[in-house]
Amino acid sequence: MYVGIDVGTSMVKAAAFDDGGRQLDVAARPVGLALHGGVVEQDMEEVYSAVLAVLGELRSRLPGPVALAGLTGQGDGVWLVDGDGRPVRAAASWMDGRAHELVDRWLADGTFETVFRRTGSAMFPGCPGPLLAWLDSHEPKALDSARAAVYCKDMVFQRLTGRSRPTTDVSDASMPFLDPRTRAYDNRVVELLGLTHRRGLLAPVSDPIATAEAREGLPAGTRLANGPYDLPSCALGAGVTSPGDGLLIVGTCLAGLVATTELDLTGEPAGLYISTDRPGHWLRAMPAMVGTAALDWVLTTTGVRHEEVDALLAETPPGAHGVRVLPYFAPSGERAPFVEPRLRAELTGVSLESTKADLIRATCEGIGFAARHCLRAAGLTGTLAVCGGGTRSPAWMRLLADVLGRPLRVVEGEVGARGAVLAAAARYGVRLDTASWTEPTSIVKPDPARATYYAKEFEDHLERLAQARERARRD
């Protein structure tokens, strides 16, 4: 059996698979987020305890030994650790918005664009560059006390294996300091962000594999691999490796990714190029800030339960009787396929005649338009796979196929954990049938008439978005 560990933003999961990729069992535990005034942080000890808990629960139910384990998790943010991988302070989440003024300044003075042209990374407030610069100005003692500024899964990997030094993998290192051509940190970018004196905090980039210690969540001697982080891991788990093919992750974060062998650092600076384990192969990623989190907010506000969504989507027609939603709910604005730290969500066309069904459909349509925008910017030309929590709603998948105007290869289950196992197998030289591991659960085809309607609505969405971005800049 094979185990994949996925340390998500709001949920930590461990899943077991057999040789053919069939998911046998999964254990999950929620973890909290502390939100206050644009600051979003996580308790590292809570996160690590959740990892041990799900591994213990899963192991207690497995009928046999674990041959191999792979680790993935949320990317970005800043996880300051000491030499043993223990926290120096709370982790600053990728959702954190405290550094938005730095990003605004770098947008204005050209630093933002220069960094993108060198690394293919469009910075946003919750990525390590702005957060480290903010901490250097406001909490220098925390940086003084840290051995390294790592990412979520790096902290977990070090503690599971007892390694003496923090490391990271090439995918997590992609934002924002890594030169995608050399696969090494760009010291000029470090200098531009005013962090040369903190250069030693950047964890060495390696191909980390190690065995687990007896005292922690996996059996002693279990082969464990660290990375890639959740976006590229989902791409592996969904079988998205051929240039032009894409993946849409409908989760807390709405992410569009397209596999590519071409590095184009021209055009509007947005998203990032994620380096993969294969040199010369990248994922052009457009990870928007809010996906299912936008729908969750609307459901909570209207008092609608998740299990009611499919029925409500059937109660109102495409266009939601004129109700429109720009789904930019994140406190740090948007980061893909454009960067606008001050952008906020907008709800228009509402009247006393509007229903909850109208609000729900308009939100799902708005998220769909944002997804189409991301995938277009990422260069999608081939097939499209879809994964994430949103796939549990058949009606939403049909709506997405219509909005995107293309068939969806729906891949259900723990796709990130599945990709983590496939990455671990490749690193250890274990041969697995990747075709059977990544076979889609279903294919959802668009309705031609609705697809034509939504193609026109998408252009209207772009016009309303342009106006909203202009208002955000003025404010």
Automatic annotation (TrEMBL):
Q: Name one Pfam family in it.
A: FGGY_C
Entry keywords, A to Z: Kinase, Transferase
In alphabetical order, the GO MF annotations are: kinase activity
Domain called Carbohydrate kinase FGGY N-terminal: residue spans: 1-205
Carbohydrate kinase FGGY C-terminal domain segment(s): 271-426
Q: Which family does it belong to?
A: Belongs to the FGGY kinase family.
State what protein this is by name. Carbohydrate kinase
Its source organism is Streptomyces gilvifuscus
